[in-house]
């Protein structure tokens, strides 16, 4: 094979799995480097040693692939019948935990090797699940996970890159590059194929033309043995390989090429359009010529290498490809059980076949199944496809569904665009609800001004306030004011909405409003009532059984414990536990990222700076956007300022300032300016610090958020103190007195804060006392 050293390393890793080593190995190599063959060789060796081998392969369906597909495929031989999207519809939120439990249970019986090929094609949900598994398997007895990645596919911006970067940083994976073979290894490979040493001229020619790529070596040898001219490019060789097949064999290969992943003989027989004897003869020829491989146990056929599949698919005429996709869609729809993977495959084939009406219904079914399984990113893609196919029919409803999935998948900017599409064609009775959705999406995207406008418009468009829609409008208005620091206004609206929600028996809305009310009460100084409201919000959210209110209840509870209540130890414990639950719900990129920022800030204030770093980097590796990205960047900036890493702090502040300039005070701009003021003070830029404080205090005028305002006043007094010291050193008594008077004015503003904010004011008073002593 020429990969004996790499195979030995995999075998050694399996023997040491669960002994504190990295739980994964990532095979990296170009097309034809031998990744798939190495995986299969390792699978055979591992099985011979008594290990349970689970093999799955990602499929090239773009973003419309079935969620979790390679892991579902891998677990099927050991399945208990519980896959996401299979059987009756229900709660699939625990699938991550169930998968982890299943792997650990198998590990108690024998060593386990989970092998995932072509990871560069992995869907978003698979990437999320894999990250979850490796995070929880690190340092624990469990399976060895081996993945293969095509290196040239990982261009800048590839969605797999953040996960790979996080695995490198956290050392949860070892990276094993499959370099090109040396001449001696090529000779060994040729000898294993031929059964004897190659002639020197043949070895030299193949070594020169293959440049050490194992797949090229095999194909060049096959071409030489069949009398074809050797070239330096692979496409003519693969074309010649396929062209040498009989008509029936080429038809069989083309039918397999159009499939999504390995295809069963039963399905292939209905799709290929060949009589059974001709199909069997064609398949036998493809296997004998090493174009296809058959899996007797699974009853499936697949290409020996993805490059061969791509070449075979490229040989199909457009009409042939459309016929095959249409046949696959029809056959899979007739035979498939209601699993997410089956439904997504049907949608893919019918779309590729150009059958608009059937593709539309299939995309909707696949979107619903993906959503039920927690695959929000894949649901978003399916709903967008349905929107594309729908023409002018019910576009408003489809755009609304796509927007909700996009937001849950962590794509708030696209959610804003989709809600705008829905509003263009919405009925008047739907306008209030859609403006609420627009407000949520704008807020998550960082456009707080636009969000408040949308919420106010939702209230204005209400047809009947004494309804569930009326409750939701009031709840959103209360939440927006809470987030803007207008806690008294928010509390009044929240209490009105809560009474109506309870009267109408709406647990979802009750949970949302209780979360808002809990924050209001905490910032207005009523700690006991705040905790009671937040705990009640969690219970109501659990009763509602929907992810968003539960995520928000967990987030609000952690933020209140860490912020105004200053119960840092309890806040860190609660936030860490709830963060794992959010990832299990598939919300790690949205709500989970914000909770990760809350946890990092809590650890920072507790002096556990080293513990905060991995929390932030793991969340940023998911590439969150909007509100979640802002919170994480600000959290990382605080750490950088504290450590004196001013260049890194400037970079994060610039990213926030340039990317989300529409964010209103005090939610984002005031914390941004507070950090900017602190950084300026450390760098001796007193004038810049004073300017940042003045701008921020203008933004928070009218805010009830004493914790936010007090931090600004503290920085302001420090700036005035530094300026007073500088002026006295220069003998400028007038300027020194002006600075001292300005500091006194800031202190008066601190004393004017509400009584319940006493802990927030203490640092301000201490800073002023230090200034007075310095005088």
- Roughly what percent helix? 55-70%
Q: Quote the beta fraction.
A: 5-15%
Classification by helices and strands: mainly alpha
Average predicted local confidence, pLDDT:
84
Biggest sheet strand order reads 2-3-4-1-5
Tally of helical runs: 37
Largest sheet: 5 strands, parallel
Instruction: Give start-end ranges of low-pLDDT stretches.
Output: 81-87, 89-93, 658-666
How many individual β-strands? 8
Radius of gyration: 31 Å
Q: Report how far the terminal alpha carbons are from each other.
A: 80 Å
- The outline comes out as globular
Task: Describe this protein's structure.
The chain is mainly alpha-helical and 775 residues long. The protein contains 37 helices and eight strands. Strands 2-3-4-1-5 form a five-stranded parallel β-sheet, with helices on both faces. Strands 6-8-7 form a three-stranded antiparallel β-sheet. β3, α5 and β4 form a beta-alpha-beta unit. α7 crosses α9. The longest helix has 24 residues. The radius of gyration is 31 Å and the shape is globular. The termini are far apart. About 3% of the residues have low confidence.
């Amino acid at each position: 094979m020429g990969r004996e050293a790499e195979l030995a390393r995999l075998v050694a890793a399996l023997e040491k799995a669960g002994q504190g080593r990295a739980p994964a190995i990532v095979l990296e190599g170009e097309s034809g480097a031998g990744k798939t063959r190495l995986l299969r060789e390792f699978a055979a060796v591992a099985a011979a040693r008594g290990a349970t081998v689970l093999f799955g392969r990602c499929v090239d369906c773009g973003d419309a692939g079935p969620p979790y597909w390679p892991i579902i495929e891998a677990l099927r031989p050991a399945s208990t019948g519980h896959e996401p999207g299979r059987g009756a519809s229900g709660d699939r939120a625990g699938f991550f935990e169930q998968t982890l439990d299943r792997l650990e249970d198998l590990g108690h019986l024998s060593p386990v090797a989970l092998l995932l090929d072509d990871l560069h094609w992995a869907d978003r949900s698979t990437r999320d699940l894999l990250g979850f598994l490796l995070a929880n398997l690190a340092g624990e007895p469990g399976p060895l996970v081996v993945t293969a990645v095509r290196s040239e596919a990982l261009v800048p911006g590839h969605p797999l890159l953040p996960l790979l970067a996080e695995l490198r940083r956290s050392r949860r994976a070892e990276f094993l590059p499959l370099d090109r073979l040396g001449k001696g290894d090529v000779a060994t490979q040729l000898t294993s194929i031929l059964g004897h040493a190659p002639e020197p001229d043949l070895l030299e020619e193949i070594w020169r033309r293959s440049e050490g790529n194992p797949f090229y070596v095999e194909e060049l040898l096959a071409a030489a043995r069949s009398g074809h001219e050797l070239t330096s490019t692979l496409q003519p060789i693969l074309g010649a390989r396929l062209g040498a097949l009989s008509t029936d064999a080429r038809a069989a290969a083309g039918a397999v090429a159009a499939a999504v992943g390995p295809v069963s003989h039963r399905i292939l027989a209905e799709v290929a359009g060949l009589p059974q004897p001709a199909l069997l003869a064609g398949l036998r020829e493809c296997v004998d010529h090493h174009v296809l491989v058959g899996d007797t146990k699974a009853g499936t056929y697949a290409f020996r290498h993805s490059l061969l599949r791509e070449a075979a698919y490229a040989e199909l005429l457009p009409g042939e490809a459309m016929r095959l996709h249409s046949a696959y869609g029809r056959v899979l729809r007739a035979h498939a059980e209601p699993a997410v993977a089956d439904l997504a495959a049907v949608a893919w084939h019918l779309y590729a076949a150009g059958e608009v009406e059937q593709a539309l219904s299939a995309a909707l079914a696949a979107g619903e199944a993906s959503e039920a399984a927690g695959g929000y990113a894949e649901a978003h893609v399916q709903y967008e496809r349905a929107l594309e196919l729908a023409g002018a029919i019910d576009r408003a409803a489809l755009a609304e569904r796509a927007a909700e999935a996009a937001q849950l998948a962590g794509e708030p900017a696209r959610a804003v665009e989709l809600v705008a599409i829905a509003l263009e064609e919405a009925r008047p009775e739907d306008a209030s609800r859609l403006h609420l959705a627009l407000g949520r999406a704008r807020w998550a995207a960082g456009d707080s001004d636009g969000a408040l406008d949308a919420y106010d418009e939702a209230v204005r468009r209400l047809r009947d306030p004494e309804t569930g829609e009326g409750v939701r409008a009031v709840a959103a208005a209360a939440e927006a004011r809470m987030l803007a620091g207008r806690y008294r206004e928010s509390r009044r609206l929240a209490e009105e909405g809560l009474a109506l929600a309870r009267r109408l028996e709406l647990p979802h809305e009750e949970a949302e409003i209780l979360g808002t009310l809990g924050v209001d009460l905490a910032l207005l100084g009523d700690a006991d009532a705040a905790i009671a409201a937040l705990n009640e919000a969690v219970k109501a959210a659990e009763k509602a059984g929907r992810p968003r209110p539960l995520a928000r209840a967990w987030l609000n509870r952690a933020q209140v414990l860490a912020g105004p209540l200053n119960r840092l130890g309890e806040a860190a414990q609660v936030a860490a536990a709830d963060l794992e639950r959010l990832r299990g719900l598939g919300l790690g990129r949205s709500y989970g990222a914000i909770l990760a920022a809350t946890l990092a800030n809590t650890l920072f204030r507790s002096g556990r700076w080293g513990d905060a770093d991995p929390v932030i980097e793991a969340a940023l590796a998911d590439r969150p956007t909007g509100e979640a990205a802002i919170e994480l960047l600000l959290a990382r900036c605080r750490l950088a300022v504290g450590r004196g890493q001013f260049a890194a702090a400037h970079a994060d502040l610039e990213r926030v300032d340039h990317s989300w300039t529409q964010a209103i005070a005090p939610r984002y701009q005031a914390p941004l300016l507070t950090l900017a003021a602190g950084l300026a003070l450390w760098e001796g830029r007193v004038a810049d610090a004073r300017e940042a404080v003045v701008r921020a205090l203008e933004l928070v005028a009218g805010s009830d958020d004493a914790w936010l305002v007090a931090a600004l006043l503290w920085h302001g007094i420090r700036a005035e103190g530094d300026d007073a010291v500088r002026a006295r050193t220069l003998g400028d008594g007038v300027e020194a007195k002006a600075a001292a008077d300005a500091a006194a004015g800031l202190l008066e503003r601190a004393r004017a804060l509400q009584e319940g904010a006493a802990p927030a004011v203490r640092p301000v008073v201490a800073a002023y006392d230090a200034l007075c002593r310095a005088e």
